[in-house]
From TrEMBL:
<keyword id="KW-0378">Hydrolase</keyword>
<feature type="domain" description="EngC GTPase">
    <location>
        <begin position="111"/>
        <end position="258"/>
    </location>
</feature>
<keyword id="KW-0862">Zinc</keyword>
<dbReference type="Pfam" id="PF03193">
    <property type="entry name" value="RsgA_GTPase"/>
</dbReference>
<feature type="binding site">
    <location>
        <begin position="202"/>
        <end position="210"/>
    </location>
    <ligand>
        <name>GTP</name>
    </ligand>
</feature>
<feature type="binding site">
    <location>
        <begin position="150"/>
        <end position="153"/>
    </location>
    <ligand>
        <name>GTP</name>
    </ligand>
</feature>
<keyword id="KW-0690">Ribosome biogenesis</keyword>
<comment type="similarity">
    <text>Belongs to the TRAFAC class YlqF/YawG GTPase family. RsgA subfamily.</text>
</comment>
<feature type="binding site">
    <location>
        <position position="283"/>
    </location>
    <ligand>
        <name>Zn(2+)</name>
    </ligand>
</feature>
<feature type="domain" description="CP-type G">
    <location>
        <begin position="101"/>
        <end position="260"/>
    </location>
</feature>
<dbReference type="GO" id="GO:0003924">
    <property type="term" value="F:GTPase activity"/>
</dbReference>
<dbReference type="GO" id="GO:0005737">
    <property type="term" value="C:cytoplasm"/>
</dbReference>
<dbReference type="InterPro" id="IPR027417">
    <property type="entry name" value="P-loop_NTPase"/>
</dbReference>
<feature type="binding site">
    <location>
        <position position="290"/>
    </location>
    <ligand>
        <name>Zn(2+)</name>
    </ligand>
</feature>
<dbReference type="InterPro" id="IPR010914">
    <property type="entry name" value="RsgA_GTPase_dom"/>
</dbReference>
<keyword id="KW-0694">RNA-binding</keyword>
<keyword id="KW-0342">GTP-binding</keyword>
Length: 360
């Protein structure tokens, strides 16, 4: 098995030479099933799990393993298994806020991805405002986003939809494709090269698994139809998995997202709404909140039609959401830090008490 096909390169080789890898071999996580992962090494595919020490380190750092991670693996003799002892530094990390939790927790979708296909079907799934949120996630992760408008055979005004999406995503490639009618495949093949890792994200039923099968030329992913009344699909993909493509390169398919809760902002908001940020610099006052103040360039741009009001409203909403989450995370961190400080104080008192007893 040649792990170069899965993206191993000279940069990773240099990282590998700088870690203690005695009795370990490099590998990559290609599927995540919760407690266990599937990984690829030069010996082939095997099952793996973290060592106790690595598991404790990951818990302390508030993170975990992810599909796409490059890892240090101890192969177990005569077994189709291995123990993971370390993770090489990630070049990119796609994540969102975990759903259904009261605190701000990161859920990693995939690691070490080069190009992220943001998929939206040209049926009732089509939503420009949601795509703006996907773009923030992409820019925050450090990957290069590409927007795919799938199921173009179901749309009568494809050019209009592409133009609309291009306005909402300045500088980001937008491609309309149809796997069922084999339209636009050559456009996507241009991104698939040896050593390149791609990933697909989108809502349930948008056609991600169908695209994986289409690009691979085989049915490597199970697919299902969507409900005709609302164009929604079920979670065909139930776990994250990485597939080797015949053109070279690998692709990560992910479960559909019913909602995208952004984890934190590392400049993605400014990049996704670069046009608004640029116009905002023309406001009369530096601290303008763009909500009706005198001399607000953004309000003026809405009046003249230079900016779409719905886009500006989404910008404001997302800006407030990220600010709220940052405050919530800061409060959570303060509580944890305070608890640790109190525990240290109690520990110091206990140690002093023990010493006093010993002296007596």
């Amino acid at each position: 098995m040649n792990i170069q096909n899965y993206g191993w390169n000279s940069r990773l080789e240099e990282q590998w030479s700088n870690v203690d890898h005695t009795d370990h071999v490099p590998g990559r996580i290609i599927a995540d099933f919760g407690q266990k992962v599937r990984m690829i090494t030069a010996s082939g595919e095997i099952w793996g799990a973290c060592s106790g020490r690595l598991r404790s380190e990951l818990i302390n750092r508030g993170t975990g393993l992810a599909v796409g991670d490059w890892i240090q693996v101890q192969l177990l003799p005569n077994e189709d298994k291995g123990i993971i002892h370390g993770v090489l530094p990630r070049q990119t990390c796609i994540s969102r806020q975990s759903a259904g939790v009261s605190t701000v927790e990161e859920q990693i979708i995939a690691a070490n991805v080069d190009i992220l296909f943001l998929v939206s079907a040209l049926n009732d799934d089509y939503n420009v405002r949601r795509m703006e949120r996907y773009l923030i996630m992409a820019w925050n992760s450090g990957v290069s986003p590409v927007i795919l408008l799938s199921k173009s055979d179901l749309c009568e005004n494809v050019k209009l939809k592409v133009a609309e999406m291009e306005l909402a995503a300045p500088g980001v490639p937008v491609h309309a494709v149809s796997a069922s009618n084999d339209l636009g495949k050559s456009l996507l093949d241009a991104y698939i090269k040896p050593g390149v890792t791609l990933a697909l994200v989108g809502s349930s039923g948008c056609g991600k698994s169908t695209i994986v099968n289409w690009l691979s030329g085989s049915n490597i992913q199970h697919t299902q139809g969507v409900r005709e009344d609302d164009s929604r699909g079920r979670h065909t993909t139930t776990h994250r998995e990485l597939f080797l493509l015949p053109q070279g390169g690998v692709m990560v398919d992910t479960p559909g997202m019913r909602e995208l809760r952004l984890y934190e902002d590392e400049g993605g908001l400014a990049l996704a709404f670069a046009d608004i940020e640029c116009i905002g610099k023309r406001c009369r006052f530096a601290d303008c909140k763009h909500e009706g103040e005198v001399g607000c360039a953004i309000e003026e741009s809405i009046r003249t039609g230079e900016l779409d009001q719905k886009r500006v409203l989404n910008y404001r909403k997302t800006q407030k959401e990220l600010a709220f989450q940052a405050r919530k995370e800061a409060r959570s961190h303060a509580r944890v830090t305070g608890s640790k400080s109190k525990e240290r104080e109690r520990s110091q008192v206990r140690n002093k008490w023990k010493k006093d007893i010993e002296i007596d």
